[in-house]
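hey m, so remember when u said the tokens were messed up on ur end? i reran from scratch. heres the input so u can diff it against urs
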Amino acid sequence: MNTLRAASILLASFLLPGSVYATPPFGFTSQTFRGRIAENVGAYQWGGPLFTLLVQSSNDQWGFDVVQGTTEFAPADAMGRPAQSGWHDHPTALSIGLVIQGTVWSHATHNLSCLQAIPAGSVFFERSGEIHNNYNLDPRTPAIVRIIHFVDRNMSATRRDQPDPVTGSTTTASAPPAPCPAPVANSGPSFQAGPSAVTAGLRLFPSQLWRVPAAVHRRRQDGAE
């Protein structure tokens, strides 16, 4: 069997069939390609900013696939209606997005009072259960996002439609709120090395299947990093 399953599919292809929730997209298109992770992957870089990537997968019927997609939000229309993805979440272990053009405005359940700007060049992360609706408010420039989903091989969809959390409607998304206030610039260091540093990681399988090298473990405990 070919180790790479690649398919180009339109947005409707990766929505859950028969979903009872449908705050519909508007001016939003997506094209995705899917391929399997055919073996275990382990990587760490614990000599600078900490990074861990641990994936258990196979070339069989179990494991994880990578779904790479490009989504485009059209400019707002002549009536001023912004393009939107519709309310949804992703049934994935992790989704990593990169805005390559324009600005995406995110309306999420953890902050329903305002829209968070995600400008070109920004990387963002989404996980299962994080419900959101993304917009393009610009009347001239399309917003384009490249996204990678890490998804269970037996899960065909990478998107689940959800009702509008503001109104409860399953058919119509409410109007977007105003943009969030600009964050205050942080004059301090963006990364604090040593034992207090935050580890950025993707863990997709039980930790007992992997062992941290003893030398690295000792350095961490001693605060040598």
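this time it looks ok to me. The chain has a mean pLDDT of 79. if urs says something different then somethings off w ur setup not the seq
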